[in-house]
């Protein structure tokens, strides 16, 4: 390709490139040729070369080296060169470029040019990339052109003034008188520019807004003229007279009528006329009607006019164009709280939009349907929402379930209906519900005393049907453990009773415990439910004891701890087991409390607060006793007699074996602090194998001074009558810089002579 090819030829060659590398090579060669010609004297091809460079810029390739050429061409007396120069300035320059300042004087000269087309080029460029400094320098020239006799120049000057006001808001005062005078023009282009300019001025200055409220009658007459005018080929768009100007006028009226009774009253009749006389079968008419609706809803309009606006949006819902349906529901969503009854009339159409194939329309319809739920329509509308939930896209399920739960909580006609609705949701989309759903439902079931029998029968049927929905299984296990006696009784007035045996119930719970689909939290619910049943059944206590003992060696630490604690109830505290039912039942429903129960854990500690002991100290002692009692440990091997077992966040914990007998040993744990602040709330808990007896003495304190200026010690007495391999697990808890820290370490770093 020769350096002098025409623009059309260069485009043809670039489009003919078969690979990106080939295209890049063509452009690099052409750019090199353009650079070379830019360096030469004026040979009449500058505008052609810049045009080619602008095409290269449109393809995304660097073209910054053409900026100075734009400045030269703008200063040229030839119109064809000046036109390409201004086009290049709009594409290659912006207010951040120093070269943009060089064209300010050329623009000022061209604004006074005798040719309207040269003036137009300068106005378009200034409106596109004029900086704040350029706007301040050239604002008087624009104000002069706003008062010119040429309509072609006035409409472009008005749009240029809009750019200036956006860049330098204080220039609005300069353009206000001229903008007011432009409203008397007959040319639609000038009127359009004037309305846009006045809108910008009113949005940026409250004083100007008050001033232009006086022209509302003039704008109303102008709008009526457009609505009632006959066919005009020059301005007609799909049967609507200049819909672009109508939309702009309506938008300005909305700003002028907002929070103003006088202005709103002056435009009420006009808005009713536009709403009833505009054809909505074409997009142009729909645009005018939509802007009319927004204006009616934003000003202080009459109630009948607002109902008319809502009905227009209701008609939009029947439109085949999905975009129109979408903006209709978006608008209804904004007004549903203030005009609830008017929007309710279109509930059927809105619900039908839930079946739309478009995801955006479906989401808007869902949000609007949830907003329409009330105490009057809760039953009928909830049926539609539950039907939608069964087939809605996965990305909408969480939002749908959350909305249904909120609506049911606010407007449930009865507790049974409320429970049935939540259970339906859990069965349909249990994997998409929020974490708090389980404790909330447990709380609801607890308060519905007369429905305990009905609920436990219904949940039992759900449990034996499907155990894949974890939230539903958790609630079912809790309910069976809590009200299992009602299930075994087989009598229920609310529903058809089911004859269930003790073995049936235990089979169902054991299935949950053994299923690979059950999460650790679900197994915790099932294990606790099994333990609760030991106080309600008579013939299968040994089976329950066997189930519980199996999970005493479970790999899941939380489940293992519960199983060991429950197993201890059967062994050492069996005489207290039947009295634990109130303790287990009275714990607040929730993922943590419904698993084991704080009262049960304190009973296992078997320690009371002694005189002189604070409750918090007693709790730490009970916790230590419980940990030692349960044998809650892992086996890890390390070695020496005195060793640093923990070092983190500036806290160091050392273990030292002080004295040793044939079967006993005294271990001292020493904690120090190297940080700049004190460590508070230090507690140490230890666990050992079941065959080893552990006794923890009271610590020397629970605050470790900063900078290693002090230490906290705690003595642990170990008795190992069977002389098994000794292993110990230590949990460290403390507060550092307002943050609670908790870590666990496993140790068998004892002397080789220790058993």
Automatic annotation (TrEMBL):
<dbReference type="InterPro" id="IPR011989">
    <property type="entry name" value="ARM-like"/>
</dbReference>
<comment type="similarity">
    <text>Belongs to the adaptor complexes large subunit family.</text>
</comment>
<keyword id="KW-0472">Membrane</keyword>
<protein>
    <recommendedName>
        <fullName>AP-1 complex subunit gamma</fullName>
    </recommendedName>
</protein>
<dbReference type="GO" id="GO:0030121">
    <property type="term" value="C:AP-1 adaptor complex"/>
</dbReference>
<keyword id="KW-0813">Transport</keyword>
<feature type="domain" description="GAE">
    <location>
        <begin position="638"/>
        <end position="751"/>
    </location>
</feature>
<dbReference type="Pfam" id="PF02883">
    <property type="entry name" value="Alpha_adaptinC2"/>
</dbReference>
<keyword id="KW-0653">Protein transport</keyword>
<dbReference type="InterPro" id="IPR008153">
    <property type="entry name" value="GAE_dom"/>
</dbReference>
<dbReference type="Pfam" id="PF01602">
    <property type="entry name" value="Adaptin_N"/>
</dbReference>
<dbReference type="InterPro" id="IPR016024">
    <property type="entry name" value="ARM-type_fold"/>
</dbReference>
<dbReference type="InterPro" id="IPR008152">
    <property type="entry name" value="Clathrin_a/b/g-adaptin_app_Ig"/>
</dbReference>
<dbReference type="InterPro" id="IPR013041">
    <property type="entry name" value="Clathrin_app_Ig-like_sf"/>
</dbReference>
<dbReference type="InterPro" id="IPR050840">
    <property type="entry name" value="Adaptor_Complx_Large_Subunit"/>
</dbReference>
<dbReference type="InterPro" id="IPR017107">
    <property type="entry name" value="AP1_complex_gsu"/>
</dbReference>
<dbReference type="GO" id="GO:0016192">
    <property type="term" value="P:vesicle-mediated transport"/>
</dbReference>
<keyword id="KW-0333">Golgi apparatus</keyword>
<keyword id="KW-0968">Cytoplasmic vesicle</keyword>
<dbReference type="GO" id="GO:0006886">
    <property type="term" value="P:intracellular protein transport"/>
</dbReference>
<dbReference type="InterPro" id="IPR002553">
    <property type="entry name" value="Clathrin/coatomer_adapt-like_N"/>
</dbReference>
């Amino acid at each position: 390709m020769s350096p002098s090819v025409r623009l059309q030829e260069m485009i043809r060659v670039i489009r003919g490139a078969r690979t990106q590398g080939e295209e890049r090579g063509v452009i690099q060669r052409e750019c090199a040729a353009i650079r070379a010609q830019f360096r030469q004297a004026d040979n009449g091809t500058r505008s052609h070369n810049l045009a080619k460079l602008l095409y290269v810029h449109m393809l995304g390739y660097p073209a910054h080296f053409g900026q100075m050429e734009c400045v030269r061409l703008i200063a040229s007396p030839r119109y064809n060169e000046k036109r390409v120069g201004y086009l290049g300035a709009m594409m290659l320059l912006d207010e951040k470029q120093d070269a943009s300042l060089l064209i300010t004087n050329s623009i000022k000269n061209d604004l006074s040019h005798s040719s309207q087309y040269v003036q137009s080029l300068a106005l378009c460029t200034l409106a596109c990339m004029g900086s704040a400094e350029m706007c301040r320098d050239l604002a008087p020239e624009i104000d002069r052109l706003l008062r010119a006799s040429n309509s072609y120049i006035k409409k472009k000057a008005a749009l240029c003034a809009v750019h200036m006001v956006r860049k330098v808001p204080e220039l609005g005062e300069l353009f206000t008188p001229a903008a007011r005078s432009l409203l008397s023009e007959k040319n639609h282009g000038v009127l359009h520019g004037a309305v846009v300019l006045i809108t910008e001025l009113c949005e940026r200055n409250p004083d100007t807004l008050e001033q232009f409220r006086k022209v509302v009658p003039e704008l109303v007459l102008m709008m009526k003229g457009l609505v009632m005018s006959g066919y005009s080929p020059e301005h007609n768009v799909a049967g609507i007279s200049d819909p672009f100007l109508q939309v702009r006028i309506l938008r300005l009226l909305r700003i002028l009528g907002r929070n103003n009774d006088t202005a709103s009253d002056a435009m009420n009749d006009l808005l009713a006329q536009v709403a009833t006389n505009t054809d909505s079968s074409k997009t142009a008419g729909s645009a005018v009607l939509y802007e009319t609706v927004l204006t009616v809803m934003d000003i202080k309009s009459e109630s009948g006019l607002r109902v008319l606006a809502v009905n227009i949006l209701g008609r939009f819902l029947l439109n085949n164009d999905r975009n129109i349906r979408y903006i209709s529901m978006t608008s209804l969503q904004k007004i549903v709280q203030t005009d609830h009854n008017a929007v309710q009339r279109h509930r059927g159409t809105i619900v039908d939009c839930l079946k739309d194939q478009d995801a955006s329309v479906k989401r808007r319809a869902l949000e609007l349907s949830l907003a329409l739920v009330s105490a009057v329509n809760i039953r009928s509308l909830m049926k539609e929402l539950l039907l939608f939930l069964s087939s809605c896209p996965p990305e909408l399920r969480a939002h749908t379930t959350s909305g249904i739960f909120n609506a049911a909580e606010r407007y449930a006609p009865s507790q049974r209906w409320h429970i049935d609705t939540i259970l339906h949701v859990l069965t349909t989309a249990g994997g998409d519900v929020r974490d708090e759903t389980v404790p909330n439902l447990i709380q609801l079931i607890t308060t519905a005393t007369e429905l305990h029998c009905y609920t436990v029968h219904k949940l039992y049927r759900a449990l034996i049907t499907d155990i894949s929905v974890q939230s539903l299984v958790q609630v079912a296990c809790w309910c069976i453990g809590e009200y299992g006696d009602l299930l075994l009784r087989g009598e229920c007035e609310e529903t058809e009773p089911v004859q269930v045996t003790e073995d049936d119930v235990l089979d169902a719970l054991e299935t949950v415990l053994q299923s690979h689909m059950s999460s650790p939290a679900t197994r915790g619910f099932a294990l606790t439910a099994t333990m609760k049943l030991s106080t309600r059944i008579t013939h299968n206590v040994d089976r329950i004891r066997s189930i519980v003992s199996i999970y005493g060696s479970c790999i899941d630490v939380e489940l293992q701890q519960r199983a060991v604690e429950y197993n201890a109830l059967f062994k050492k505290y069996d005489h207290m087991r039947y009295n634990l039912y109130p303790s287990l039942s009275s714990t607040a429903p929730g993922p943590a409390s419904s698993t084991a129960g704080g009262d049960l854990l304190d009973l296992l500690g078997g320690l009371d607060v002694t005189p002189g002991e604070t409750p918090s100290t007693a709790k730490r002692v009970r916790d230590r006793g419980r940990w030692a009692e349960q044998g809650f440990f892992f086996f890890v091997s390390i070695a020496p007699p005195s060793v640093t077992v923990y070092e983190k966040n500036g806290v160091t914990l050392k273990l030292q074996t002080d004295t040793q007998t044939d079967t006993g040993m005294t271990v001292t744990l020493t904690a120090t602090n190297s940080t700049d602040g004190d460590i508070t709330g230090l507690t140490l808990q230890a666990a050992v194998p079941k065959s080893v007896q552990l006794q923890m003495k009271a610590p020397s304190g629970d605050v470790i001074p900063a900078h290693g200026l002090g230490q906290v010690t705690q003595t642990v007495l170990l008795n190992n009558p069977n002389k098994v391999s000794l292993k110990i697990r230590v949990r460290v808890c403390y507060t550092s810089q307002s943050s609670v820290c908790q870590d666990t370490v496993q140790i068998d770093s004892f002397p080789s002579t220790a058993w």
